[in-house]
Design goal:
The structure is a single chain. The chain has 7 helices and 6 strands, in the order ααβαβαβαββαβα. By secondary structure, it is an alpha/beta fold. It has a 6-stranded parallel beta sheet with strand order 3-2-1-5-4-6, sandwiched between helices. Helix 3 packs across helix 4. Bound molecules: S-adenosyl-L-homocysteine. It is an enzyme of class 2 (transferase).
Length: 219
């Protein structure tokens, strides 16, 4: 019994020593791998230079032109949405941001009336927004930030159709996902606030079988 016990602990000790040795050689192994990677990279570079393999395809970065155009996403509808819709709005905002970062013609982006559940979603689930550049998160309404005469609320319910964007104007997009539950919501809000409204020329450009109401990031 004693013999068996001592042989078992001998095995365990052997295992422990082996593990220790492995741990101690970690730095050496890391350096060896680094050297190996470096050699591989150099060999690949040489092969490209000799025309043996094609060069790696680089994703072209767009030559971005930042226009003076200001686009507001109005987030004042927080309490009118279900939790799922709040999640959808938040991911549409993320898409707006990344599309604007990679487009050739960027706009100045503002998320106004930011707060409540959308802010909570950003703080807890998205988080990467703390590193976002070129977008203003504002807890205030667009009315407090911009001149009323410059504002144009984009809504599918407007009678005026715009064909061109005016760089002196501030275009507002309603930050809401409602599956058309709230008809005329943004139109009525803009009228109440005495703000101009306009719809995009969807009928001229896209064939849509249902209503011509787009998602935030598509606008
Ligand atoms: N029931 C909402 C619809 C939300 S769609 C409403 O009352 O508008 C999200 C936003 O996209 C809208 O608030 C609007 O600003 C914009 N939008 C969608 N389709 C549009 C269109 N055809 N023309 C202009 N703006 C549009």
């Amino acid at each position: 019994m004693n013999l068996q016990q001592s042989s078992l602990s001998k095995n365990a000790l052997k295992k422990l020593l082996k593990q220790q040795k492995w741990e101690e050689s970690r730095q050496e192994r890391k350096a060896a791998q680094k050297e190996k990677d470096k050699k591989k990279k150099l060999e690949k570079k040489k092969a490209v230079e000799l025309g043996l393999i094609p060069p790696p395809i680089k994703k072209p970065k767009p030559n971005q032109i930042t226009s003076n155009l200001r686009v507001v996403i109005d987030l004042s509808f927080d309490s009118m949405m279900t939790d799922t819709e709040i999640t959808s709005v938040s991911s549409q905002l993320t898409r707006c941001y990344s599309a604007n970062r990679s487009t050739s013609h960027a706009v100045n982006l503002f998320f106004t009336s930011y707060g409540q559940r959308i802010q909570n979603r950003f703080d807890t689930k998205i988080q990467s927004h703390i590193n976002w550049k070129d977008v203003v998160f504002d807890t205030k309404s667009y009315l407090e930030r911009f001149d009323k005469d410059d504002l144009v609320y984009l809504t599918a319910d407007a009678t005026d159709v715009i064909d061109e964007l005016d760089e002196n104007k501030v275009y507002i997009i309603g930050g809401i996902v409602d599956k058309n539950r709230h008809k005329n919501l943004c139109y009525d809000k803009a009228k109440k606030e005495n703000i101009a409204t306009a719809q995009l020329p969807i009928e001229k450009c896209i064939k849509m079988t249902t209503r011509k109401v787009l998602a935030i990031n598509h606008v």
